[in-house]
Amino acid sequence: MAARQQQQIENQQQMLVAKEQRLHFLKQQERRQQQSISENEKLQKLKERVEAQENKLKKIRAMRGQVDYSKIMNGNLSAEIERFSAMFQEKKQEVQTAILRVDQLSQQLEDLKRGKLSGLQSYSGKLAGPAAAELKRLCQELQIRNQLNQEQTSKLQQQKELLNKRNMEVAVMDKRINELRERLYGKKIQLSRVNGTSSPQSPLSTPGRVAAVGPYIQVPSAGSYSVPGDPIKPQSLTIASSAAHGRSKSVAGN
């Protein structure tokens, strides 16, 4: 019985030793796995860090390229601005020269208007060479321009006078037409009294009946004429009056 128990104890001890060995092996294997996992994690982290560094490097290179491109563009823009500045200064100088030229011509024109042409001619006699020729040419040009201005002023004055004349003629014609309307209205009143009918309305309130006497003539304003035509002949007044008399006689005869 004791030997049997002793045998069982030994077997249990052997099983315990085997389990301890197995446990030790599993622990070692687990340590190795944990080490490998930690190494893989470290490696993954290193890879991620390397990739992040590479991305940063790419961004830095791209930004550096943009900076270089911006520098090139800024250089081009600076050159363009300098070129435009030079052109602006040149144009400004030309404008100043033109202003001085205009001032000189204006002064010469004023001198011509004030009757100082003789003084300019005597002064041009003191000059010699191209300056005298240029001054003489300018004097002739100013004389021509002054003459053209006078002609244009005279034409405008004639056109204004003609326009006023036509306005007066139209006003006279309108007055004549109003007189003819009043006479026709009086004839109609007399005719209605003879026939015993009611008196007709005033021609001012019935423009439709007066339209048979003659067309409505609108007196134009001074600004409505672009180019005045031929003046109205006096014969048109006599024709309109004779037509109105004939019509009034025909109405009276009826």
From TrEMBL:
The keyword Nucleus applies. GO terms for molecular function: p53 binding. Its main location: nucleus. GO terms for biological process: regulation of apoptotic process. It is found in: Nucleus. One of its GO terms (cellular component) is nucleus. Residues 223-254 are annotated as: Disordered. Residues 2-63, 88-159 form a coiled coil. Keywords: ANK repeat, Coiled coil, Nucleus, Repeat. This is Apoptosis-stimulating of p53 protein 1-like. It comes from Leptonychotes weddellii.
